[in-house]
Amino acid sequence: MEKYSRNQRITGIMKQLIENPNKVINLNTFTEKFNAAKSTISEDILVIKDTFIKLGMGRVETTLGAAGGVRYICGMSKMERGEFVSFLCQILSEEHRIIPGNYIYMTDIMYNPEIIKKAGILLASTFINKEVDYVVTVETKGIPLAYEVAKLLGVQLVIVRRDNKVTEGTTVSINYVTGSSKRIQTMSLSRKALRNGSKCVFIDDFMKAGGTARGIINLLKEFDSIVIGIGVLIEDIEISEKLVEDYISIVEFAGINEEDTAVIYPSKYFQ
Amino acid sequence: MEKYSRNQRITGIMKQLIENPNKVINLNTFTEKFNAAKSTISEDILVIKDTFIKLGMGRVETTLGAAGGVRYICGMSKMERGEFVSFLCQILSEEHRIIPGNYIYMTDIMYNPEIIKKAGILLASTFINKEVDYVVTVETKGIPLAYEVAKLLGVQLVIVRRDNKVTEGTTVSINYVTGSSKRIQTMSLSRKALRNGSKCVFIDDFMKAGGTARGIINLLKEFDSIVIGIGVLIEDIEISEKLVEDYISIVEFAGINEEDTAVIYPSKYFQ
């Protein structure tokens, strides 16, 4: 049977860890794959663990016992985080982004995997110690970000629809009033989409008054489920009275200045 | 200045490679990070490269020259691929999945990061040698899969909307006729969403007659752009006359049997 060097085992273990965030991988997976003793694999993991701390790139945890194993928990060094948030502020305040109606065009940012991956790490790492069952979002622009957070937390994504699709089976629909423009909107979710009694994190691209977030809280009540965390990329701080408490944002939008560009600051959560 | 052992360097290099698929990372990034000579880093990468081949988990390529460096290209061993496709066939033919109207309920599958990550590797690896500028999808169910493929190809995602949103600025809308039910539908895309003259890959969850795919081809013509590849998770082979050629699917749907379950086979592309 084939033998592997420590370098080779570390390469293989790293791939599996990074590709399965927040999932406990049993040590037997590696002892079998690399035809090595448990003590050998444990030493490999110790090297990996120390390097994660040294390089500030998240952490690797080992859990003992029968269901024990090793798992990778996403994270970012303070320096990298600072650089990323500054970069976000910079691109969001680019000149060409203000479109008629005084909206910020940010679709390209929300659909850029390099950016969304990092934003996902920031948001996911704040919820990592809670027992999250699902990450919930409402279509469309926040889906890639919500997907990243779900992946990093190792849970299923749930997407609430604006309409009612035949391919969803029985659905529950609620009407809600948006907090900023006071319009009535509908959102619906398939009965099959989540188990009753779940704990959910709601992720979205932009929060104005928080009407959508409150709508989600009410919709999830129909599934006997609760929202235990809310995370958005941008928060509009011009609307100071929010309809929800306890949310985190990565950057803050403070209106449009005289040069017709958005005024964007790092939010207090990631300074 | 801090020194790192080979094991530690490999741990750090692996993290950066796996998290940045299909992106060339300059060797200087690593020589600076680890305070090591280029020859040392080259040896580290050689170990990684060989291990990828040995374990059949994609590949690592080095390119020479000023813009040279190293990049990770996603892949899956034949065995893992076979297991994954069988697993997909099995869960898609579960009893409870047929919903009124004879649709397969597959939302949970399309929003499951563990499944979508693997499906993404299968589709992305077939387009990896083409010069892809964007991955395009149409909302909503295919978005996570399209996002994975975009991330693995190292390109931007573009999401075509069913409606017209104020936050998208100037949009181009087209009407198209669905291939199976002959309904007229609209799709629209922001003018800012992609550069003219781009090569795109279209990703979706399900293909019936291919009306949506043909609609995308026509929409992209308005941006002087072309579709150079189409990939779907499931293809309906009951509709044999497709409106588009040259597409790949992971599994085939061959109708519903007497036990009221979907008949699903591995497609010819991934056998």
TrEMBL record, chains A, B:
<dbReference type="InterPro" id="IPR000836">
    <property type="entry name" value="PRTase_dom"/>
</dbReference>
<dbReference type="InterPro" id="IPR036390">
    <property type="entry name" value="WH_DNA-bd_sf"/>
</dbReference>
<dbReference type="InterPro" id="IPR036388">
    <property type="entry name" value="WH-like_DNA-bd_sf"/>
</dbReference>
<dbReference type="InterPro" id="IPR010078">
    <property type="entry name" value="PurR_Bsub"/>
</dbReference>
<dbReference type="Pfam" id="PF09182">
    <property type="entry name" value="PuR_N"/>
</dbReference>
<dbReference type="InterPro" id="IPR029057">
    <property type="entry name" value="PRTase-like"/>
</dbReference>
<keyword id="KW-0804">Transcription</keyword>
<protein>
    <submittedName>
        <fullName>Pur operon repressor</fullName>
    </submittedName>
</protein>
<keyword id="KW-0805">Transcription regulation</keyword>
<dbReference type="InterPro" id="IPR015265">
    <property type="entry name" value="PuR_N"/>
</dbReference>
<dbReference type="Pfam" id="PF00156">
    <property type="entry name" value="Pribosyltran"/>
</dbReference>
<keyword id="KW-0238">DNA-binding</keyword>
<comment type="subunit">
    <text>Homodimer.</text>
</comment>
<dbReference type="InterPro" id="IPR050118">
    <property type="entry name" value="Pur/Pyrimidine_PRTase"/>
</dbReference>
<feature type="domain" description="Bacterial purine repressor N-terminal">
    <location>
        <begin position="6"/>
        <end position="74"/>
    </location>
</feature>
<comment type="similarity">
    <text>Belongs to the purine/pyrimidine phosphoribosyltransferase family. PurR subfamily.</text>
</comment>
<feature type="domain" description="Phosphoribosyltransferase">
    <location>
        <begin position="114"/>
        <end position="241"/>
    </location>
</feature>
